[in-house]
Amino acid sequence: MEAYLNANDQWEAVENTYEVPPLLDNPTIAQMKNHKESKQRKSKAKASLFAAVSFSIFTRIMTLKTANEIWNFLKKEYEGNERVKGMQVLNLIREFEMQRMKESETIKDYSDRLLDIVNKVRLLGTDFAYSRIVQKILVTVPEKFEATISSIKNSKDVSSITLAELLNALQAQEQRRLMRQAGFVEGAFFAKSHNNIQQRNINNNNNNTTFPSCPYCKKSNHPQSRCWWRPDIKCHKCGQLGHIERVCKSQQQQQQQYSLPRSQNCC
After folding, report:
1. Is the full-model pTM beyond 0.70?
2. How many CB atoms lie within 10 A of CB 138?
3. Which pairs count as long-range contacts for 141-146, CB under 8 Å and 24+ apart, including other chains?
4. Which of 118, 117, 116, 177 is nearest to 142 (CA)?
5. What is the rounded CA–CA span in Å between residue 67 and residue 169?
6. Residue-by-residue DSSP string for 212-249
7. What are φ and ψ of residue 241, in 5° steps?
């Protein structure tokens, strides 16, 4: 908020309590312009503070007359004293120490979670070195990153590793791992599709194969051993040799009889 007010040339009106002196007789154009800007700066600073807070907070500061009064109220109410801020920092550091990376989490998600806690600590006025974040990540990432971490430790001094270097190395391994998994799935899908095509080709070839003329039925679309009219095959429907149930005449006659209207079946 301080940076925003500074950028809009309003911070002076918030930080200091000053009165805009009245214009003198016969003021110059420059004096009139400066007087107007000074008054507007105080009003704009007050309006910016009103716009930055929620409605519930606005109802508590709406009766305050100057931007400086509003700012001091907000500091006292929400920034707290040194003892309160110290307790907040301790709670945040405890939360930071308890963090562990989940197996389903990405390096970016985990680092963002840690940095969110660290930034809250820094906002309370406590320094938090990036080296602590590096050490935290090195000891809390899953075992799948152990090869990369060992390579980093062997190549340089751990205390000199920057957070950006560590994250780039771990994310590179993460991406290679995802690419290998994607390639494996794609390869397995291709192999399955290839096998299905081969099987269809085999079935088509079998269906289109021409055999010597069968001595029993005189057809050439099947081998002699699979003929339905072999003399040694027995029909389980009528009990006779020389055909199978599918072409049994007694079965076909029985089906035709059942399909006739009732008036034709009666004598």
Report:
1. no
2. 16
3. 141/101, 141/107, 141/110, 141/170, 142/101, 142/103, 144/177, 145/170, 145/173, 145/174
4. 177
5. 49
6. PPPTTT--SSS-GGG-TT-TT-B-TTT--BSS-GGG-H
7. -85, 155
Amino acid in the structure at residue 66:
T
What is the distance between the alpha carbons of residues 237 and 246, in angstroms, rounded to a whole number? 9
Are 107 and 174 contacting, i.e. CB atoms less than 8 angstroms apart?
yes
Cβ 92 vs Cβ 83: under 8 Å: no
Per the listing, tokens 């550091």 go with 93
Residue 224: Cβ within 10 Å count: 13
In angstroms, what is the C-alpha Rg of the chain? 44
Higher-pLDDT residue of 83 and 95 is 95
* Element of type H or E holding 258: helix 249-259
Q: What span, in angstroms and rounded, lies between the C-alpha atoms of 260 and 250?
A: 16
Residue written as tokens 């109410």? 77
Tell me the two tokens of residue 165: 């270097």
Residues 6+ apart with CB under 8 A from 193: none
Cα–Cα nearest to 165, from 113, 111, 109: 111
For the beta carbon of residue 107, count every other beta carbon within 10 angstroms.
21
pLDDT in tens, 211-259: 788 888 888 878 877 787 788 888 878 888 877 787 787 766 666 655 5
CB-CB contact of 247 with 229 (8 Å): yes
DSSP-derived secondary structure letter, 23: P
